[in-house]
Amino acid sequence: MPATWLRVSTADRLRTTADVPRTEVAVVFGAGLWQGEPSPYLAHRLDAAAELYRTGRIEVVLVTGDNSREDYDEPDAMRAYLTKHGVPDARIVSDYAGFDTWDSCVRAKKIFGVDRAVLISQGFHIRRAVALCEAAGVDSYGVGVAAKHDVTWYYGGAREVFAAGKAALDAVLRPDPRFLGPAEPGVARALAAGR
Questions:
Q1: What gap in Å lies between CA 66 and CA 4, rounded to an integer?
Q2: Rounded-to-integer distance, Cα 70 and Cα 7, Å
Q3: Above pLDDT 90, what percent of the chain?
Q4: What is the reported pTM?
């Protein structure tokens, strides 16, 4: 059963912002915009990334999300939020083709050269993110941020039941992401900027 696979395969990979191992890169997955601003769920993820940056646990934040329409740009909204919360612009790298979790993980590895990362998402999604990034070749720890148990939370939890099946298929079949493209030096450049 895919949900059992996710639970077992990620059991020793979940941490908090206080005990996650120091890692150069954090990956924050998009979670929707409200009138061009990060949704409350996405804001919680970004707050955790900013905290990890402030405490010296990470050096660079890779924001990955949807930018498939001219009027919808998750990565730029995420970048703006992080800079307002103390993360220098030069320490943020944007992935504009993170259309789903698998695509974001594969692109982190193949396009941005990330071998190890702290992943940040809500608790209902973090196991799937860790399992998929591990399958894509990114040694991962996950920080599942707290979320209010509202309609969105229940929807997210229910959605994960079905998403677990797709995740299992992605991990086995390892399809190419919707957009792959050439390698981008953004993460290496951001890391070098701080040294």
A1: 29
A2: 37
A3: 71
A4: 0.91
